[in-house]
Amino acid sequence: MTFSIVAVDRQAEEVGFAIASCNWDARRVCMARAETGAIASQGSGNQDLLPRFFEKLGAGQEPGAILDGFRASDEGIEKRQVGLISFDGTGAAHTGAACMPWAGHRIGDGYTCQGNILAGPQVVDAMAEAFEQTQAPLYARLYAALSAGEHAGGDLRGRQSAGLVIKKTGQGQPGTDTYVDFTIEDHQNPIAELGRIMQVAGSLVAVSMMQEAFRGAVGAARGEVLNRLRGFLEDKKDPRYLDAWMFLAKAFHEIDDTHGAADALAEHLSICPAMRGVLRHQAAEGHLPSAWDGLLKTV
Hints:
Layout: E1 2-9, E2 14-21, E3 30-33, E4 37-43, H1 49-58, H2 63-73, E5 80-86, E6 91-95, E7 104-108, E8 111-116, H3 122-133, H4 138-151, E9 161-167, E10 178-184, H5 190-216, H6 220-232, H7 242-254, H8 258-271, H9 275-284, H10 291-298
Antiparallel strand pairs: 1-2, 1-8, 2-9, 3-4, 4-5, 5-6, 7-8, 9-10
């Protein structure tokens, strides 16, 4: 009913999973922990195996031995698939004899991929090949595997949900170690939508990085960073980037580039004309430099 991949990037110290299914909330059958590993338990999945995997890893067991323990203790193991990866890249996987066809898995360096009720073995073969051949950060490699599996036929019954998660120590909200976390539910093409969301997120991260670069730049380099940001935003004139255009307007004003400030402000107001009144109020209340009152009258 599902195809998934669990994987690590030892150099980047990242671990995660990607999964797609015709079922709602595909990611509930997966779990990852920073500097520890990741697991998928699907088919007739047993979510109790998820925390048990990490307990046994913490006790020093290897994925193969943990999987042997699951086989011995879980009465329904032959109806399940399990994919395990430890932080050192050691993988183990199981496809039960009673899983509905086609079902199978592949184990490679730093990953395992698995699926059941698939179009055929080409699905997991394509996933493994895409993961191995993609030269990119872990999130992009996981997505490449998921997308390749979909193009190879994917889940025989259809589509509904997809998810991609990466854990890395110290990332995300305090205590979560969540570096990447995307979930698509109840969508006609969840993997394509996942790719679109990841692309938007990547653009917003790029904007944030250029903003930080401006704050740390001095002299002529400040204008160079702003011109680079202006070029990046040229095809991004929609509400998602409204704050970026305002940042650009304020930053150009800060370096006394009146033309650049007016241009960015005009783009900001073309995206959301209602902001004109808000900005005039802010200027009147002294929350914007006095020069902005005149600037607002020119755009």
